[in-house]
Amino acid sequence: MDYGMIGKIEKAKRYAQERNRFHFKSMQVVVDGDNNPHTVSFERGEWQCDCAFFSTRGRCVHTIALETILEGMINGLPVES
């Protein structure tokens, strides 16, 4: 591995520890549920999930799990205990 790449890897590790550097605008994730996979998306500050529970409640286990994983990286979406 060349020295230039070693420096980039070290910088990437530092960035990864500084979560406040990252700001999600949109994303799409497939979550493997216990019964079926579910597609979760985040667009313009709002979550969407294709599971039935989300359609009636506006939140579900899939979106809450992602909120927990991304805590502090998505503005305006606090994780509730």
Helices, strands, pairings?
Blueprint: H1 3-17, E1 26-32, E2 37-43, E3 46-49, H2 52-57, H3 61-69
Antiparallel strand pairs: 1-2, 2-3
Share of helix, binned: 25-40%
Tell me the total number of β-strands: 3
- H/E element sequence: HEEEHH
The backbone outline, from C-alpha atoms, is elongated
- Evaluate the radius of gyration: 16 Å
Count up the helices: 3
- What is the strand content? 15-25%
SS content category: alpha+beta
Span between termini: 44 Å
**Regions with little confidence, pLDDT below 50 for 5+ residues:** 76-81
Describe the protein's architecture and organization.
By secondary structure, the protein is an alpha+beta fold. 37% of the residues lie in helices and 22% in strands. It has helices at residues 3-17, 52-57, 61-69, and strands at residues 26-32, 37-43, 46-49. Strands 1-2-3 form a 3-stranded antiparallel β-sheet. A hairpin with a 2-residue loop joins strand 2 and strand 3 (46-49). Residues 76-81 have low confidence and may be disordered. GO terms for molecular function: zinc ion binding. Residues 38-71 form the SWIM-type domain. It comes from Longilinea arvoryzae.
Task: Considering the chains and any ligands shown, give keywords for the structure.
single chain, alpha+beta, three-stranded antiparallel sheet, 3 helices, 22% strand, disordered C terminus
